[in-house]
Design brief:
Blueprint: H1 15-32, H2 40-61, H3 69-94, H4 97-102, H5 104-123, H6 134-148, H7 156-170, H8 176-190, H9 196-215, H10 219-232, H11 241-255, E1 278-280, E2 286-288, H12 289-297, E3 316-317, H13 319-339, H14 341-346, H15 349-365, H16 367-375, H17 379-385, H18 391-407, H19 409-414, H20 450-456, H21 462-475, H22 479-485, H23 491-499, H24 504-517, H25 521-529, H26 534-542, H27 545-557, H28 562-570, H29 574-583, H30 586-599, H31 603-611, H32 615-623, H33 630-646, H34 663-671, H35 678-691, H36 697-706, H37 709-716, H38 722-737, H39 741-747, H40 750-762, H41 766-778, H42 783-791, H43 794-799, H44 813-822, H45 832-840, H46 843-853, H47 856-871, H48 873-876, H49 906-909, H50 918-924, H51 930-941, H52 949-958, H53 962-967, H54 974-987, H55 991-1011, H56 1014-1026
Antiparallel strand pairs: 1-2, 1-3
Helix pairs in contact: 1-2, 1-3, 2-6, 3-5, 5-6, 7-8, 9-10, 15-16, 15-18, 17-18, 18-21, 21-24, 23-24, 26-27, 27-30, 29-30, 30-33, 31-33, 32-33, 33-35, 35-38, 37-38, 38-41, 40-41, 41-44, 44-47, 46-47, 46-50, 47-51, 50-51, 51-54, 54-56, 55-56
């Protein structure tokens, strides 16, 4: 660094040396301006000017010039301004940022003066005598002109801050919020952190600068800065809570305990009330502004007191009087706030409510009063009042707590203070020392369970709930309070309930509070357990890997309703979980799979998983034969089963969705049955059972047949695990139900029949019993199979599942239907001995009863069996014995059967008439199912076979069967129509029946001659010929 100040006379040093020293100084300044803390752009502009001046001075230094008066002045001015610029740059590099901001106008003024003085020095150069080039002369002229007009202005933000400071000082603003906002704006303007500790440190350095100003005897600056400090020190960050407490209690102790009466000068002469905005008129008298303005507005021109003329435009604020009034009010308010505490503790309800109302009013008036309430340690008392029975007291306490909580972090921290409730000791003399650093454990204890008391009110009346959630929301803006809120038992559950309430404000506050509490994964898990999944889904999508795993684990463990499962998929849970399945490590895969297992049980979720490509990754995991991940494969198998179930009902899906798209997938999945444990086996069997009910059932059954699934399933029906055994039976039932007879016979043997009967007798799984019975029902009706059934004792086993009364459990309908179908094995007319065994087991009356009380399937199966029984009746009917001896002494002859002519009985000849089956069979003809009607009609037609036509037709006529048979001519079933035609063709051979029913059959018969097939047309014409409607030579024959 050179020392320009050592140059006392320019004449004593050669001109070139002086110019070199000035150039060096300018370059040093240009470099130093890069380090300034404030006004960077202004200093950058100064640096740019100096960098343009330097070449000019270097050019001058090349000339052989000697001193002149003008040149001497130039050097002296430049020397002086370089010194000033160096000092200004040094100050703006080292001094406190806030101090520099407060002096920003002065800094700008100094920069302008330095720039213009350097411009003036350039103007004094004797250019005519220096033999300078035209270019240098033009550069000097241009530079001098620019620098002369240079203006350094404060930034908009800086100017706004200075204006607010001036306004606050002039208006004597004492609001803490004003100071808080102002201090934040200052921090942002000078580029420092708005963190409380950083602001505190900067403010302390600022005050140190003021002390330095006093030491420099710069009293004007010190006074101005003291006013700024007085304004800013009301900010929370400007002084610690402890400092504020000491200052407050020192002042409060000096006031005494009795309020002062207002001075007479405080009263407005017009209103007779203490003034709030006193103004002085041209008469020298002071009035309340609103009162004197109204006086003048009413047309008065004279002063109310002196009766002298008033200048209506002159109303000067009486700031001195206003300050005195405010000081008097503050003194009395401070005493009032301190005195009400004891009344709140020991007063009656009305007195407590009165005190709370006054405190609420004071807290709403000024932030300074709110601060005094805090310093008097009212917070623990308000918390205690939240436990009062009177809800008005609780609500008032809540309102005040909300006001205080919104006021400052100081108040929020006070909720965790440990000062005693009844203490009158200043807070700074207790263990509580403020919230600047709330980390030490001894300062983070609840005030009489503050948060718990507030949370308790979330379950009360709506008004109190709204106040409680609003208070918790405000508290949650403090890290300390936020940590405590989520830990209160039941809090998050109550908030989730409120988040969906009808009250919009309460719901919005609850949602925002849950948002604030979502900083903690534990809180998010609690929200999820309360069915609020928003933040869990966010973490699952965007959180770190360990957090994603934690969220997936939570989903896996939750007990979810169907609505929850649907909303989670709608909220986007599937994508992140599939990502974990495909890209995560083994632990991540496990939790993701477990979560998907939980969610996939909802069919609509299962369909969505299939659509979004979940199947192949899951099958990939399932096909990995790694012993260490057997549990993972079990869970994947469960998901596959859920997805298969989801494909069964696809009414809402515009396009049909298949789980297994390729034959290879089908074969590989089924092959795992022989390679895995019972859990996986069970779920694979369930999956294929579901697929056999889906739209792709036909293809699935075909492919299973191709891979010899029936053989595998027959073996699994003897599996040790009851669940595997039961599900194998279920799937086998699906395959046999519509299976190829040759394939069934290939795999079904006597041992398997015995296995099925054991399952029917011993299984505790009703569905397995039903399916085993269904398999027997669908076995081919071959003599060998029937004999195996009889040898294994199947008849009594099957019979006991067919109810012998109309009281049939609807839950067992399918089982009874299968049992009724299985009974057909023993009713074939080709083997009367089997029929006799079934009849002796009492099956015929049960079948007759099913005709009236069974389901459509039961009725059909019963009718088929009865028809087969009836086919043997004629041969089994016993001839009527001839009477012996004298007719007058012998017993009356036995009455023969009207149909069969001989002696009939239910168990011996299986006669339908004796079994009272005709009426029930006729009623079955009215069943809406054509197949069931056809079975009943077949049974009835056995009564008119061959020689039985005459008597059988009479029985049918008496049972009103013939009109129903005529009705079948209009049936939608061609088989039933044709069967009705064959029946009527025989019945109408009888003249009496032709005459009675012929007319009602004519129109349906004529219709069939027009629209029936050729056979129906021919039969219809033949019957019409019987009815004399057509002659025998008609072309219809």
């Amino acid at each position: 660094m050179m020392a320009l100040d050592v140059i006392t006379s320019a004449c004593s040093v050669p001109v070139g040396e002086c110019l070199s020293q000035i150039v060096e100084g300018m370059m040093e300044i240009a470099q130093a301006t890069k380090e300034v803390l404030v006004k960077k752009e202004s200093f950058k502009e100064l640096s740019a000017y100096l960098e343009r001046v330097v070449p000019v001075l270097k050019e001058l230094n090349k000339k052989d010039i000697s001193y002149s008066r003008n040149l001497n002045s130039v050097i002296e001015i430049l020397n002086q301004e370089i010194k000033a610029a160096k000092q200004l740059t040094a100050d703006c590099t080292k001094r406190n940022k806030v101090y520099l901001l407060m002096n920003s106008r002065t800094i700008n003024k100094n920069l302008e003066e330095i720039t213009r003085e350097i411009s003036r020095a350039l103007g004094l150069l004797p250019m005519a005598s220096l033999d300078l080039s035209t270019g240098i002369i033009e550069e000097i002229e241009e530079l001098r002109d620019i620098m002369q007009r240079a203006e350094f202005r404060a930034a908009i933000a800086e100017e706004e801050i200075l204006v607010k400071i001036e306004s606050g000082i002039q208006e004597r603003v004492v609001d803490r919020s004003y100071a808080n906002k102002l201090l934040v704006h200052i921090a942002e303007a000078v580029g420092i952190s708005t963190d409380r500790s950083a602001l505190k440190k900067e403010f302390e350095e600022f005050k140190s600068e003021i002390e330095n100003a006093r030491l420099r005897k710069d009293q004007a600056e010190a006074i101005q800065m003291d006013q700024i400090i007085a304004l800013l020190e009301r900010a929370d960050a400007a002084s610690s809570p402890k400092e504020k407490e000491i200052k407050y209690f020192t002042k409060r102790k000096s006031l005494g305990s009795q309020p002062l009466e207002p001075l007479q000068s405080f009263y407005c002469p017009i209103t007779r009330d203490v003034m709030e905005d006193p103004v002085e008129t041209s008469s020298g008298q002071t009035f309340e502004r609103s009162a004197i303005e109204k006086w003048l507005a009413d047309g008065h021109e004279m002063c109310p007191l002196t009766m002298t003329p008033l200048h209506t435009s002159i109303l000067r604020p009486n700031k001195t009087l206003r300050q005195s009034i405010e000081e008097w009010k503050d003194r009395n308010t401070m005493i009032k706030i301190a005195s009400m505490k004891s009344r709140l503790v020991s007063g009656e309800e009305e007195e407590v409510l009165g005190c709370l109302e006054q405190l609420e009013d004071l807290c709403e008036q000024r932030d300074q009063y709110r601060e005094w309430v805090l310093l008097e340690n009212y917070i623990p008392l308000f918390i205690q009042l939240l436990g009062e029975k009177n809800h008005d007291i609780r609500n008032r306490a809540f309102v005040i707590l909300c006001i205080l909580a919104k006021d400052s972090d100081h108040a929020k921290c006070a909720y965790f203070s440990s000062a005693p409730l009844d203490s009158t000791i200043p807070l700074y003399e207790t263990s509580w020392v403020g919230c600047v650093d709330p980390s030490p454990p001894e300062r983070i204890v609840n005030v009489d369970n503050a948060i718990e008391s507030i949370v308790r009110s979330l379950g009360r009346r709506i008004g109190e709930r709204k106040l409680a959630v609003a208070l918790l929301l405000e508290l949650s803006k403090s890290n300390l309070a936020r940590d405590g809120i989520g830990k209160v038992q039941g809090c998050i559950l109550l908030l989730v309930t409120m988040a969906s309430s009808d009250d919009n404000q309460a719901a919005a506050d609850a949602q925002e509070l849950l948002e604030n509490l979502s900083f903690s994964d534990l809180n998010i898990i609690q929200m999820a357990k309360a069915n609020y999944f928003k933040h869990l889904l966010q973490r699952l999508s965007t959180g770190p890997e360990d957090v994603k795993t934690n969220m997936a684990s939570t989903l896996a463990e939750l007990e979810l309703t169907d609505h929850n499962k649907a909303s989670l998929f709608e909220g986007g849970a599937l994508g992140p979980l599939l990502h974990l399945v495909t890209c995560g490590d083994v632990p991540m895969k496990k939790v993701a799979v477990k979560a998907l297992q939980n969610l996939s049980s909802l069919p609509e979720n299962g369909l969505r998983m299939i659509k979004e490509g979940a199947v192949q990754p899951l099958l990939g995991l399932l096909f990995q034969h790694i012993s260490s991940s057997s549990s993972l494969r079990e869970e994947v198998a469960t998901i596959i089963m859920h997805l298969a179930v989801s494909t069964v009902s696809q009414e809402s899906s515009p396009t049909l969705i298949s789980l297994l798209e390729s034959d290879d997938d089908i074969f590989k999945l089924f092959s795992l049955i022989n390679l895995t444990g019972p859990e996986v086996q069970q779920n694979i069997l369930l999956a294929f059972h579901a697929l056999c009910q889906s739209p792709s059932a036909s293809n699935i059954k075909t492919k299973l047949t191709e891979c010899s699934a029936m053989q595998v399933l027959v073996q699994l029906c003897e599996h040790d695990d009851p669940n595997v055994r039961a599900n194998a039976v279920k799937l086998l039932y699906c395959l046999i139900e519509d299976g190829d007879e040759a394939i069934i016979l290939e795999h079904v043997g006597q041992k398997f029949v015995e296995t099925l009967l054991r399952i029917i007798e011993l299984s505790n799984v009703e569905e397995a019993t039903t399916c085993a019975m269904g398999i027997i029902s669908n076995l081919p009706e071959k003599p060998q199979i029937t004999q195996w059934l009889l040898d294994a004792g199947a008849l009594p086993v099957i019979s006991k599942f067919i109810p012998d009364s109309k009281h049939n459990d609807p839950r067992k309908y399918h089982l009874v239907e299968n049992a009724t179908g299985a009974m057909r094995h023993f009713t074939a007319s080709t083997n009367p001995e089997w029929q006799k065994s079934a009849a002796e087991a009492g099956i015929i009356p049960v079948l007759v009863q099913l005709l009236d009380f069974g389901t459509t399937v039961m009725k059909k199966c019963a009718a088929i069996s009865l028809a087969r029984f009836s086919e043997s009746s004629l041969e089994l009917s016993r001839p009527i014995p001839k009477r012996k001896g004298f007719f007058c002494f012998s017993a009356p002859p036995e009455t023969g059967c009207l149909i069969h002519g001989g002696i009939c009985a239910v168990k011996s000849s299986f006669c339908l008439v004796e079994a009272d089956a005709v009426g029930p069979l006729v009623r079955v003809l009215q069943d809406p199912d054509p197949g069931t009607c056809e079975a009943a009609l077949d049974a009835l037609l056995t009564l008119i076979d061959g020689v039985k036509l005459q008597n059988g037709s009479k029985v049918l006529a008496e049972a009103n069967a013939i009109p129903l048979i005529i009705g079948f001519l209009s049936s939608s079933s061609p088989r039933l129509q044709e069967k009705a035609l064959n029946t009527l063709e025989r019945i109408f051979r009888l003249p009496e029946l032709k005459q009675k029913y012929g007319s009602s059959a004519q129109m349906p018969l004529v219709d069939l001659t027009l629209r029936g097939n050729s056979r129906m047309k021919s039969l219809s014409a033949r019957i019409l010929a019987h009815l004399n409607v057509l002659h025998d030579q008609s072309s219809y024959f």
